[in-house]
Design a protein that fits this description.
Elements: E1 2-3, H1 9-19, E2 27-39, E3 42-49, E4 54-58, H2 62-71, E5 77-78, E6 81-82, E7 87-88, H3 93-102, E8 109-112, E9 115-119, E10 125-129, E11 139-143, E12 148-155, E13 158-171
Parallel strand pairs: 2-8, 9-13
Antiparallel strand pairs: 1-4, 1-5, 2-3, 2-4, 6-7, 9-10, 11-12, 12-13
């Protein structure tokens, strides 16, 4: 995982894919989230960067990748790098599984779609479908008014909070 200037994630991915051979960087992407936002009296589907300033890189050779990154004319800080041993810490397998499970694979960008929820009697929330189905334990809280779920993800030992979009499909009467 690398850190870039916020707002330059797409350009960073394009630069890396264009200038670093595929045998060094197998995959490179950033993550966007789709959610609903209410303005001007109606709900609109919007896209936002899920982890602003971060780009994910899949590589088998972190040392070559790091030296290739250094040769590019862009700001990119390799995260999880121990400068003494030159060891690059990969993302935890559970967190990688989580990111792979909740995102749609596409070139350069992965998208997290809306999760559909039902609100049962007693304000119990059930995730019916979508990327968060099966990951209720990752959800810290639901903000039903703003149609979002607050999720905590562990990236390189740091807990990162992000909000993901939800759609309420059924609300119990009572």
């Amino acid at each position: 995982m690398i850190q870039v200037y916020t707002g330059t994630e797409k350009k960073a991915v394009e630069t890396i894919k264009k200038n670093i051979p595929q045998e060094i960087v197998q995959d490179c992407f950033f993550v966007i989230k789709r959610r609903k936002k209410k303005y001007q009296g109606t709900w609109h589907l919007i896209e936002e960067n899920c982890f602003p300033g971060y780009v994910f890189i899949e590589t088998d050779d972190p040392q070559k990748m790091a030296s290739s990154l250094a040769s590019l004319r862009m700001y990119a800080r390799l995260l999880g790098l121990n400068k003494e041993t030159f060891y690059v810490q990969p993302i935890d397998k559970q967190e990688r599984f989580f990111i792979d499970s909740i995102t749609n694979r596409a070139p350069d960008v992965r998208a997290i779609e809306l999760s559909k929820i039902e609100i049962k009697e007693g304000q119990t929330v059930e995730i019916v479908s979508g990327p968060l189905k099966g990951f209720l334990g990752k959800v810290q809280k639901f903000d039903l008014h703003r149609r979002k779920a607050i999720v905590e993800v562990n990236l390189l030992g740091t807990l990162v909070r992000t909000d993901l979009g939800i759609e309420i499909i059924n609300k119990a009467e009572g």
